[in-house]
Specification:
The chain is of the alpha/beta class. Helix content is 39%, strand content 14%. Strands 2-1-3-4-5-6 form a 6-stranded parallel sheet, sandwiched between helices. It has a 6-stranded parallel sheet with strand order 9-8-7-10-11-12, with helices on both faces.
Length: 380
């Protein structure tokens, strides 16, 4: 396994010109934000053989032969997503190829438990190659950095997740003014492996019943894609929503939403529930924060550290109805809570947008400084 312990050949390269980053992937909103600094250029994603245009996975850049053939076209490699496509031995060869090309390697540890996998053994083996082998590590929360230090003895630079919302929605497309009833959303999408849809749905319906009995008018809005990975789980969700007390829940099935439509759907919520049985960080949570929607998150990973400002309430493990009811009660009754379609919600979204723009600029400069330090021969 490559350890990359010595300074790479990149140490002899000038750091005054534009730095060219081979990012895995390149076409991703997260990557676009953290590389939006003067003097950085990201290589476009190569299209895998036989793939449709615009698809980046499985990532061609993580092929040792591709790195050798394109060594002169980039200055460093930054790995974000897509490693699950390869065996650990292949990733070790990729690190060796990057070192031979003179590319320092940066790894952003987004996931310590992979959301697209049920069995984590293979992914843990990949991390056992990549985390010790990278020249520098980045992660999103202090908790993840502490876990990385405990497991591998490596320090990671903590850079908070950037914004995911593009342009702010026009006033004409903002959420309709809210009625007395609070709407709590549960977006199950295509039922990826870390989504426990039946447990999350069952807990939300029970929590809604509990909150309504306590005098807080709440309705659940459960959303599913028409095409899902687990049809049995989808059927169970349908049955649960059908059997719910009248007026307490609505099930919406639709195709994958365009970004604008997704933002509109989320903007109409009073709170959103994350249905994850395992995971580390959540981009969905970030989009909710951008839109002013508070989030009830399960007590796994480090979701609660992404925004420790009271906008995220921990609800216990997925399926914990009592914990979810308590989390939603805290969020919906918080003095800081805003309603969809109100001036207070619009002001909150504008304020968060301004904060994001400043934080995103800082994050991009942190990445640029890290890259230049590595290329100047900075220590691991």
């Amino acid at each position: 396994m490559s350890q990359l312990m010595a300074p790479t050949a990149g140490a002899s390269r000038s750091t005054s010109r534009t730095l060219r980053v081979a990012s895995v992937p390149a076409a991703h909103p997260y990557v676009a934000r953290v590389t939006d600094a003067a003097g950085l250029a990201v290589l476009p994603d190569p299209t895998p053989p036989g793939a449709e245009p615009g698809r980046w996975w499985p990532p061609v850049v993580l092929d040792p032969a591709w790195i050798a053939a394109h060594a002169a076209e980039a200055d460093l490699l930054h790995v974000h997503f897509g490693t699950e496509s390869f065996e650990p031995a292949h990733l070790a060869r990729t690190l060796d190829a990057a070192r031979a090309a003179g590319w320092p390697v940066v790894l952003t540890v987004h996931d310590l438990a992979h959301p697209q996998l049920v069995d984590q053994a293979g992914y843990r083996a990949q991390l056992d190659v990549l985390v010790p082998g990278a020249d520098a590590l980045v992660t999103l929360t202090p908790g993840a950095a502490a876990e990385i230090r405990e497991r591998w003895g490596r320090d990671a630079l903590v850079v908070p997740h950037p914004r995911l919302l593009g342009e702010l929605p026009a006033a004409s497309s903002a959420a309709a003014p809210a009625g007395a009833e609070r709407v709590v959303g549960l977006h199950l999408k295509d039922l990826r492996p870390n989504v426990d849809a039946p447990a999350a749905t069952r807990a939300l319906l029970a929590a809604v019943t509990d909150l309504r009995a306590a005098g807080l008018p709440v309705r659940a809005e459960v959303r599913l894609h028409r095409r899902v990975r687990d049809e049995a789980a989808r059927d169970e969700v349908r049955a649960l929503c059908t059997a719910a007390d009248p007026g307490t829940a609505v099930l919406v099935e639709h195709d994958r939403l365009a970004d604008r439509d997704l933002a509109a759907a989320l903007a109409g919520l009073d709170a959103c529930v994350l249905p994850y049985a395992h995971g580390t960080h959540s981009g969905w949570l970030e989009l909710c924060w951008d839109l002013g929607v508070p989030v009830a998150a399960p007590a796994v990973g480090y979701y609660h550290q992404q925004h420790p400002d009271g906008s995220v309430a921990t609800s216990g493990p997925v399926g914990d109805a009592a914990g979810l009811a308590a989390a939603l009660r805290d969020l919906l009754r918080s003095p800081a809570a805003t309603r969809p379609g109100t001036a207070a919600r619009e002001a909150l979204v504008r304020d968060r947008r301004a904060r994001r723009l400043a934080e995103d600029r800082a994050a991009a400069e942190q990445h640029a400084a890290l890259y230049r330090s590595l290329l100047a021969g900075g220590a691991r």
